[in-house]
């Protein structure tokens, strides 16, 4: 019998996660939760209600979960609650990604189709390596970070907790992207990014930060 998994979230990110889980076939998906009362199934997967249902599901034998929510702070908060409830957060890894044998992964991580994680990189809990993103050798991607589709990180880059790298951005070697910072879509990072800052452009420069 396959282990049962519940998906937290029912938006676009959840659609991709469900697609990957269905194609790998390792888990039985019992349904999704949604805070927004959506009632439409996702590709045949039912919306079960909001997160109040999670303790009930756990008592019924659903011990695994995946948090399919793109917002880094929300994902972090939910992951803390899930641990209190006793859930084990699974990794969802597309069979069309490449992960080096020397790379290390935490838990609750999404690795989407076309993503590459090269030698000796470390991906911490709850991070998202989105579609076609490349994480080169010796990177460290800390917990709750999101590397959006098509980003390219050169060697020895460190992305600190909760940072968000927008679609198609690039980072030159050995730079540090500070915690809970935001790098705008298409930006090229050539200097370290400070914690809690927002940078955009080529080369990336600091703008306002309202979050
Ligand atoms: C599968 C998925 O969909 S995963 C999700 C992927 N999502 C993304 O990649 C979204 C990335 N988001 C962005 O790039 C956004 O533009 C943000 C977060 C940087 C916007 O931040 P905000 O603070 O709202 O910036 P705002 O829109 O007010 O723009 C401020 C200035 O920065 C500029 N700017 C905003 N984004 C960018 C960017 N990516 N590159 C260059 N300049 C930019 C604006 O033109 C504006 O300049 P101006 O003051 O000269 O007019």
UniProtKB/TrEMBL annotation:
The PglD N-terminal domain, residue ranges: 4-81
Source organism superkingdom: Bacteria
Pfam families per the UniProt record, alphabetical: PglD_N
UniProt-listed NCBIfam families: NeuD_NnaD
PANTHER family reported in the protein's UniProt record: ACETYLTRANSFERASE, UDP-N-ACETYLBACILLOSAMINE N-ACETYLTRANSFERASE
Protein name in the entry: Acetyltransferase
Originating organism: Ectobacillus funiculus
